[in-house]
Design brief:
By secondary structure, this protein is mainly α. Helices cover 82% and strands 0% of the residues. It has 15 helices and no strands. The protein has helices spanning 10-41, 44-70, 74-97, 103-131, 138-166, 169-189, 204-216, 219-234, 242-249, 254-276, 284-303, 308-336, 342-355, 357-371, 373-406. The protein is globular.
Length: 407
């Protein structure tokens, strides 16, 4: 089938099956960590601080990690990070089991997980192109990987919530620890033919500068990264205000909040499903513009919704637009980057996406404190639409200039 054509590649099948089990365990652990933090502190700030400790390494380390990944064997990096993440999960399980789970320990373990994940994500994203047998299947492989990530994002917290209430938090950590053996086994089963990496004695700052120069000389690539950075700071963090919409705007409870989360998750699945069914050689930059515009319009209309069902529909729209945009950006970058620069370019993608979201969440939270949740979401939607228009204007300008030179 067209939508699953990347699964014809045996290595990608191993990767996707192992990774899906591992990610369900990861989401179960995230639910358990949030529950323990809130049980210990009853503080929303401590919840945010724990998330910040987990995500901030992606912003600070990604440029270095990109250069490191380009100078070393990406498969070995991925295998090593999965073993280290398994050890981290094992320590977390033991700490929870013997009741040593205080806030200092939780934040340190979350920070360690974030540091390992910064290396893991860059190596994993850079390696996908080597897992498929036909390069034209890369957009489909990226879309399937995104769909799997979103599906586990829905299933993991649901299963984690049931286990948390029936068997306790230690079980969630234990299952996450065990889940890493599946992905490690799948990596060991792969037979990849990777080019030999030349070990150059280069300064880290020199490799960072090379990545910057490469992007500067690739205006289309740099423009999608700048668009993603703008959305990560100002638009994507709208989701941190969904609990406010559920509780204060629509007078709901935890179940109402879960409907918003589910609507966004279903929308994300639709978005990745659309990308997965695209035929090769589609204009990804046009899809980036369309996806980002749908996302921003969904955010703007959500702010003016006075009916819960309508608000859930617009939340679904935001998930669909966001996932179409990010999957299309990832696909465009991977299809147009030289292999020896892949790690550095992917690291800029991760930094502008996962790295900037915690910063944006702090900014959006501060604005919402002063202006209210609805007004903040209006501002986010408007910034998103303006960003997409600016992106489209410069994209069209570059295309017209290129056509003029050809004539």
């Amino acid at each position: 089938m067209q939508a699953f054509r990347a699964l014809k590649s045996k290595n990608f099948r191993y990767f996707l099956s192992g990774q899906s089990v591992s990610l369900i365990g990861t989401w179960m652990q995230k639910v358990a960590v949030s529950w323990i933090v809130y049980r210990l502190t009853s503080s929303a700030f401590m919840l945010g601080l724990t998330m910040f400790a987990n995500l901030i390494p992606s912003l600070l380390l990604s440029p270095y990690v990109g250069g490191f990944t380009d100078r070393h064997n990406r498969y070995k990096i991925l295998l090593a990070t999965q073993i280290l993440l398994a050890l981290q999960a094992g320590i977390f399980t033991y700490v929870v089991y013997i009741k040593l789970d205080n806030m200092a320990v939780i934040i340190i373990l979350s920070l360690i997980q974030g540091i390992i994940t910064a290396f893991d994500t860059t190596a994993r994203q850079s390696l996908i192109v080597k897992m498929i047998e036909h390069e034209e299947d890369l957009p489909n492989a990226i879309a399937l990987n995104s769909a799997m990530a979103n599906l586990t994002r829905i299933l993991g917290p649901a299963v984690g919530g049931i286990l948390l209430s029936t068997l306790g938090d230690t079980m969630c950590f234990s299952i996450n620890f065990i889940s890493y053996f599946f992905v490690i086994f799948s990596l060991l089963m792969m037979k990849l033919h990777l080019p030999k990496v030349e070990h150059k004695e280069e300064n880290v700052w020199q490799t960072l500068y090379e990545g910057y120069v490469y992007l500067k000389e690739s205006p289309d690539s740099s423009s999608v990264i700048m668009l993603l950075a703008a959305y990560s700071v100002f638009v994507i963090p709208f989701s941190t205000l969904l609990p406010v919409f559920a509780k204060d705007v629509f007078q709901g409870d935890a179940a109402t909040f879960s409907w918003f989360e589910s609507a966004a998750g279903v929308g994300a699945l639709i978005g990745t499903g659309y990308i997965a069914t695209l035929k090769p050689n589609k204009d990804m930059l046009t899809i980036v513009f369309a996806g980002s515009t749908v996302f921003a319009i969904g955010v703007l209309l959500l702010s003016s919704s006075f009916n819960l069902q309508v608000a859930l529909f617009f939340t679904l729209l935001t998930g669909m637009g966001m996932m179409s945009m990010t999957a299309a950006i990832n696909t465009y970058l991977q299809m147009h980057v030289a292999d020896d620069m892949r790690g550095r370019v992917v690291s800029y993608f991760i930094m502008s996406y996962q790295g900037l979201i915690p910063v944006g969440s702090l900014i959006v939270g501060a604005i919402a404190e002063q202006c209210g949740a609805k007004a903040t979401v209006v501002i986010e939607g408007v910034i998103g639409i303006v960003s997409s228009i600016v992106f489209f204007y410069f994209k069209r300008k570059r295309r017209n200039a290129a056509q003029f030179l050809v004539q």
